[in-house]
Write a structure and sequence with these properties.
The strands form two sheets. Strands 1-8-2-3-7-4-6-5-9-10-11 form an eleven-stranded mixed beta sheet, with helices on both faces. Strands 12-15-13-14 form a four-stranded parallel beta sheet. It is globular and about 60 Å long. Helix 7 links the parallel strand 10 and strand 11. The protein contains ten helices and 15 strands. The chain is an alpha/beta fold and 325 residues long. It folds into two domains: 210 residues, DHBP synthase; 90 residues, Rossmann fold.
Amino acid sequence: MIHSGTDPAAIAEAARLIRSGELIGLPTETVYGLGADASNDAAVALIFAAKGRPSNHPLIVHIAEAQQVLDYASSVPPFAARLIAAFWPGPLTLILPRKPGVATAAAGGQDSIGLRCPSHPVAQALLKACRTGVAGPSANRFGRVSPTTAAHVADELGDDLFVLDGGPCDVGIESTIVDCTRGQPVLLRPGVLTRAQLEAACAEPVLDNQALATNAPRASGTLASHYAPNAKVRLMNKAELQAALAAVEPSRRIAVYAHSIAEINEASVLFRAMPQQASQVAHELFAVLREFDAQGVTQIWVEALPAATEWDGVRDRLMRAAVQP
């Protein structure tokens, strides 16, 4: 059931469902989430069951304001506080040391917790109305393409789920994740925030996980295979793509998403031009993959992205989508 996120009665009902231990779909600026009361382990277990997600794969807890961080985190390093000041509300998740006995199921049993303050007005209204942190992974089956509209959520999880409609997600890919539990900021998942932006805000180098000898906490969306449509995704440079198109068999049903090709005059090929700006590609990427799947293609050929760092978040999603589970 899809309900307008601008309707105060719908917000109130969604908050009631959260407090009652039930699940809802909610919009954020990144992707739509499947929400439950983060303090209710039984409700959080329903998220894992609905998604088919392993219960040791932690969820991100969404909060309405930065002051709620200490409800869940035992400490906040100074560099993390600077990141909060710079980017919250917004598409940034911080992994922080978890207070004992708090949100155990949402944390996947780890002694750390992922926290985010979303900027979407509907998410903000809901979080303020339900007065609790909301565990909210993407509202899709585990490992599949994330939803960026309310209709995507209903298609994925069924019409019985109460879904708040906040329109298409502005950002379109999941949040940047920075681990703050090991004394230095460590990038676990890229998003639309670049490393340069993060470093400027926290006044410290942001490390890659491989640079530290200690093990990273488990975090959402960091498995090798993730964000995958039903069709097989292949990443190709321009020359490889042109060669593949020259040899394509008319009987095959192929989709192409490319930025250096204007059009393709082949009936068996479904073509979408990729925007030239990374933010525009991020905004539409998951919707495009879902559209290709709906057209029944067997393969999706995607042109390799520019090397600039602002493309890292989109590149990460496509590389994981191309890994066969």
